Every structure is written in C-alpha cells, then in structure tokens.
Amino acid sequence: MSLSVSRFGWVSARLAALVAACCVGLAGVAWLSWSASESSGYDPALRYPHRADAIVLQPPSVEPHDATPVGNLTTTLAGYADVPGTLVVLPGSVAVEEREALTATLDTLFGTPAAPRVLDSTPVGDLAISPTQLAAGSQVYRRLCNQCHGLTGNGQGNAGDWIHPFPRDFRLGKFKIASKGSRPSPGELRRVLREGVPGTRMQAYDLISEADMNAVIAYVIHLSQRGESEVKTLVTLANDEGTEPAEVAALVTAAANRSAADWQAAALTPKLTPVTLPTGDDALRRGHALFTQNCLSCHAGYGHAESFRYDAWGVAAKLPDLTRGEWKWGRTPADAVARIRNGIPAANMPANPSLTDAEVLDLAAFALALSRPDLLPADVRDAVHPDPDAE
Ligand code: HEC
Ligand code: HEC
To answer: Does residue 215 sit in the same domain as residue 295?
Structure first.
C-alpha cells in the first residue's frame, strides 16, 4: 500500500514538474519563433569560409587504443601529418592563388549560406533541391543543426568539438548510416533525422514539419556536395604544383558534377524489404561460428572489450558493445542484413559479398540476439557472456 501511495506521489510530482517544464517550454518556443522571425537567415554578405583543417587520407597504421579526445579535433588530425606512414593534406600547403581560385569557384557554384545553390538542381529522388528549397533549409539548419554540425558542415559548430562521438562532418560526402555504400538516399536521411542516432547526441527530430524536414535534408546534401568538391580539389592541388586558376575552376566543376551524380545514384538505392530471420538454437550456433570467423577480429569480446578503429575521417571511433545492443542504425532484421552484407564503408567495416544469403541471415539473427542472453543456447551464451556474475 505504502508503495502505491509513494508511487502515486512520485507520479504527481513528476506531472507537476512536467506541466511546469511545458510552460517553460512553451515560453521557450514562443521566444524561439520570435527570435527566428527576427533573424532567421544569414547575413547575405556572409560567405562560406575556405577549408583550413587537415584532410586525413591515410590515418596511422597502428589501431588506436582510445577515442580521439574531445576539445581539439583539428589539432589531433593535423598532428597525424608527423606520424610515419600516414597521408595527410594540409590545405595551407596549397598555393594561396590556387586556394583563392578554389573558393571563388565554390562561391559561384554553391552560393552563400543565405543563398545556397547546387550545380545540378534536378531533384534527388523525391527531394526538390532548388534554390528556394535550399534557402529554406539553410534557415532550419541554422536553428537546429549549426551548433553541432557547423556552418560548412564540418562537424565543428560551437558545441561540436566537445561532443563524443563527434557530430558528423558532411564535407567528405560520406555517411555511416546508409544501407548500401557510404551515401544515404533522401529517405534514409529522413529516417536518421526522424529517429536520431541512439547512443550519440544526435537526437530524434520527430516534431519538425515535413516541409522543414525536406528543406534541411536538401541543405545537408548541398553542404556535402560543396565540401566534397572542395576536398577533392584540394587533394589534387596538393599533389600538382602550379595549377592555373582556369584549371582550378574546371577541377571544382568536375568534382561538383561527380558528387551530384553520386547523390543521384544513391537516391536509387532500393528501400529495404522486410526479411524473416531464422530462429532456434541451430541458427544461433551457425551465426556464432560465422561471427567468430568474420567479425570477432574487430568486435573483440563481442564488444565487451573496448576497441577503436579509425574511420574515413581519421577519427578513432568506438566499436559498439554488441552485447548491449548498441546500434546506431535501426535494429530491424532488414537493417541487420544490410549492415552485414554491405558493411559500413565510412567506418571501415567491410562488406561481405562472398557470404551466402543463408549465412547473412544466420549472422543477422545472431548479431541481434547478442544483447539477449535469454535467447542464446547455453554453450553460445557461455562463450559470449563468459562471466555473468560480473554484470
Ligand atoms: C547536439 C549535437 C547535434 C545536433 C544539434 C544535430 N546533430 Fe546530427 N549528429 C550529431 C552526432 C553526434 C551524430 C552521430 C555521429 C556518429 O554516428 O558518430 C550525428 C549524426 C547525424 C547524421 C548521420 C551521419 C552519418 O554518418 O550517417 C546526419 C545526417 C545528421 N546528424 C544531420 C543533422 C541535422 C540535419 C541536424 C539538424 C536538424 C542535426 N544533425 C543536429 C550531433 C548533432
Ligand atoms: C574491420 C573491422 C570490422 C569487422 C571485420 C566487422 N566490423 Fe562491425 N563494426 C566495425 C566498426 C568500426 C563499427 C562501428 C561503426 C561506427 O559507429 O563508427 C561496427 C559496427 C557494427 C554494428 C553496429 C551497427 C550500427 O548500426 O551501429 C554491427 C551490428 C556490426 N558492426 C556487426 C558486424 C558483424 C556481424 C560483422 C561480421 C560479419 C562485423 N561487424 C565485422 C568494424 C568491423
């Protein structure tokens, strides 16, 4: 009895707190919409700054022992240039005239934060990517995303450097959350935004309007195309000395065209179709054996053991603790199958083209059951969770 009373008391206290929070929240929303209407866009004179931070093409060959520390990401990445065996491009090493020609062409092709453009404004899948859509998207981005993902999409907004894992840097044209390859379709981006990325500071944006959602996705694609064109050109310029301004412009334009075509291709990625996974002890035993052969080398101790790998940005990313079900992407059977078949190229998790369909299904069933000891047959459970008392 006393339990139910105190529970009720707890609930009503929570309710009061919630009502109070809602009032504060509503006042906040009112303030936000007021301040948004006061200053919803960027100053038309503002240009995107040129890229100054290091581009890591080849990270150190020894796997990292810890996550890349927060607070000084750009210094850490630039520091790799001094490690033997790495390949790092420092934009400052490119001649000033070449960098100026690069930025001038980027301005022409991609506009400014207030008036963003893309080279090819044909829709990407079902997504309009017109200047009007992009201008609207830039305003949503400024309000909801800029503090983490940054003005140029570099992941270094005001809060970005202090968040672990770091907010995604869109400028490589690479994403971890895509069912195939390293570029999502607009539908996949929509899903990431609606669901968020569990276990990270990327929250679920499930309350913003469909119009704002489409606009901000178009804007992310714009930032990504712009950043990718800049990176590709900088890498070429760093390798070839004495490139004429006209040649620089041609290089940027070619890179922008390629990026636009790659986004068009990613939009054709078929939607995941539901799959049925095998059940029962035998399937889980087969999945366990396949995991031991194909996955354990990276997913040490199934994730019990902390381990890290360099990703496509040169950042040391933590491998998930699969025994806790730490997945950043959805956990439907179809998501698991796509992950295992296609890998996560931007995280350097390999694809598995040579596994049979039945093997992928067994692996998916096992990977999903890793966080459910009650589902595992005793022999497999003992291998996966060797010391249950330590839990
Ligand atoms: C509080 C910081 C924060 C805010 C605000 C934020 N993000 Fe993120 N975002 C992150 C983090 C952290 C990740 C996860 C990175 C990872 O998986 O390692 C992420 C991931 C993403 C991804 C997936 C990247 C990938 O590799 O697949 C997309 C797309 C994205 N954010 C877009 C947005 C957009 C658009 C907004 C605004 C509507 C936004 N984010 C707001 C921090 C933030
Ligand atoms: C070369 C190393 C490597 C191998 C081999 C590897 N993985 Fe991964 N895996 C990773 C990394 C790195 C991540 C973390 C990606 C991130 O979030 O940055 C990951 C993440 C995952 C995730 C979480 C996905 C999510 O949505 O967050 C699952 C599930 C997974 N791996 C399963 C497997 C399975 C099953 C195999 C074997 C078929 C496998 N991995 C082989 C490196 C590897």
So the answer is: no
